[in-house]
Write a structure and sequence with these properties.
It is a single chain. The chain is an alpha+beta fold and 487 residues long. The chain contains 19 helices and 9 strands. It folds into 4 domains: 74 residues, Orthogonal Bundle (434 Repressor (Amino-terminal Domain)); 55 residues, no CATH class; 180 residues, Arc Repressor Mutant, subunit A (Orthogonal Bundle), CATH 1.10.10.2910; 127 residues, Beta-Lactamase (2-Layer Sandwich), CATH 3.30.450. A 6-stranded mixed sheet has the order 5-4-8-7-6-9. A 3-stranded mixed sheet has the order 1-3-2.
């Protein structure tokens, strides 16, 4: 039995586009609906439903329609609208059948030949604006936290290791003849060129962006103030959208996933799986694993080396680990774990934004007089045993951050710094651990102290909205228009 013998529906494509193609071809040949219906032995109402995109014809009927119209099935199934007018009609019909329009509780407008192009354009524009507002309304802090928590859960399950991204990074490096050692800026430029992009360093990069990629003209714009070494990661993050096939994110969860993938790809290129894995395996054999050595071997930032270590630790070294980035205020900015450490979290299980215990390495490192060398510390947890952690400070425009990597006590034997005598205890989330003042201080000051809170600007601000949350689209589009005109 062949496919042509099976009375099955056509593979789901675009019923609206198919219907418009059938109608335009019929009108072009001068057939009435009744004449076409008679030619294929169907009722006119059935053909009308097909032309209006309300029904998909099964394969034998589609073949009969194509034959009656002196056409082919392939021609009728072309995905592009047959005309500009048809494209407008399809856009409006599709919008009226969508979940957003349905949620408004409005009756759909019948689109006919009498409906002017101006009316259709207005309806399409109104629907696009309603969808935009719907996306902004949906991007609540709770929705964002849930999406982030779900993504962190997935990362934990896979050990923060993604083979597809590793293969993509390896393919990019192979394309420019990488043979080992730190990946040069020239190699990154060559990768960009092979993907069809040129690099442009400008002084007017939009303030809300780290880079801007112009896919129409094959250009990547970066700040002229970036040191040449540090330009590698922004270029790779920009190219990640092309390599990973990213489209405009349709949800906050998709936006977060794309950002994680971009950072992962940049790390996988700058610290290649094979070479970085060799460095780490030798270090484990020597019981001397160090983020500083990994950083220096590939000429990257400490934070990127620490991130990359989490990608490879479980897959290549059979080690469970955790990672933290905390602001000097104590706020947890980034976190990952698959070693069972209990990060502070909100009611939804989200780590980011929570306050780190003052006794954890990520906080005690800020109090050390030596802020150049790594800080090592054991922390006895009230629940979960003892963890060892190494931490360093890094500067950013928002202040100081600590970047920390840790393991369970039984795994510290593989790391440099395990001989440290620094040790603390943490009973958080019990607020008697580090949040509540002693009884003596409380009695002395609770009725006399009246501090004014330094409210963070983000406390009352709405969650960033737009296709790319936090990015000023008007500024970006004006920037691209300005630079395209200057070519």
């Amino acid at each position: 039995m062949t496919l042509t013998d099976i009375d099955t529906a056509v593979e789901p494509g675009d019923a609206l586009t198919l219907g418009r193609r059938v109608r335009e071809r019929r009108i072009e040949l001068g057939f009435t609906l009744e004449q076409l219906a008679a030619a294929v032995d169907r009722a006119p109402s059935q053909l009308s439903a097909i032309e209006n995109g309300k029904r998909e014809p099964k394969l034998p009927l589609l073949r009969a329609i194509a034959q009656a119209l002196s056409s082919t099935i392939d021609e009728l199934l072309i995905e592009e609208a047959p005309s500009e007018r048809a494209a407008l009609e399809i856009a409006v019909e599709r919008a009226q059948r969508g979940a957003v329009f349905e949620s408004l509780g409005l009756a759909p407008i019948r689109v006919s030949k009498a409906t002017s192009d101006e009316t259709l354009k207005a309806l399409q524009g109104l629907h696009q604006e309603v969808e935009r507002l719907h996306r902004e309304r949906a991007a609540t802090p709770e929705e964002a936290r849930r999406a982030n928590t779900e993504l962190r859960r997935e990362m934990r399950v896979v050990g923060n290791y993604y083979p597809d991204l590793e293969r993509a990074a390896s393919g990019l490096l192979d394309s420019v003849g990488y043979v080992g050692g730190p990946v040069s800026q020239q190699s990154i430029s060559n990768i960009a060129e092979k993907l069809g992009f040129s690099l442009h360093y400008v002084t007017d990069i939009p303030h809300s962006t780290r880079s801007v990629i112009d896919r129409r003209n094959g250009r990547i714009y970066l700040s002229a103030n970036l040191p040449s070494r540090d330009a590698r990661a922004p270029v790779l993050r920009a190219l990640a959208g092309v390599v990973c096939g990213h489209e405009e994110p349709g949800s906050y969860g998709e936006f977060l996933r794309q950002r994680v993938e971009a950072n992962y790809l940049a790390g996988a290129v700058l610290l290649p799986e094979g070479a970085a894995g060799d460095v780490l395996r030798r270090a484990k054999q020597e019981r001397h694993i160090s983020m500083e050595d990994l950083r220096d071997a590939f000429g990257v930032s400490y934070e990127m080396a620490a991130h990359r270590f989490t990608n490879l630790a479980t897959e290549k070294l059979d080690l469970r680990v955790h990672f933290m980035k905390a602001h000097e205020s104590g706020t947890l900015i980034k976190a990952y774990e698959n070693d069972g450490v209990r990060f502070p979290s909100d009611a939804l299980g989200n780590f980011e934004g929570a306050s780190v215990c003052r006794n954890w390495t990520a906080r005690t490192v800020f109090t050390q007089p030596d802020q150049f060398n790594p800080w090592y510390q054991y922390t006895d947890m009230s629940a979960g045993g003892t963890y060892w952690c190494t931490s360093r400070l890094e500067k950013a425009k928002e202040g100081l951050y600590s970047v920390s990597v840790g393991v369970r006590f039984e795994d510290v034997k593989w790391f440099r710094g395990r001989e440290t005598t620094h040790r603390t205890s943490s009973n958080c989330p019990d607020d008697r651990c580090c949040k509540r003042a002693s009884g003596e201080l409380t009695r002395k000051w609770e009725s006399a102290a009246w501090p004014e809170a330094a409210t963070p600007t983000s406390l009352l601000a709405a969650l960033p909205t737009g296709t790319f949350p936090g990015v000023d689209a008007n500024e970006v589009y004006s920037f691209l228009e300005r630079h395209e005109a200057s070519r």
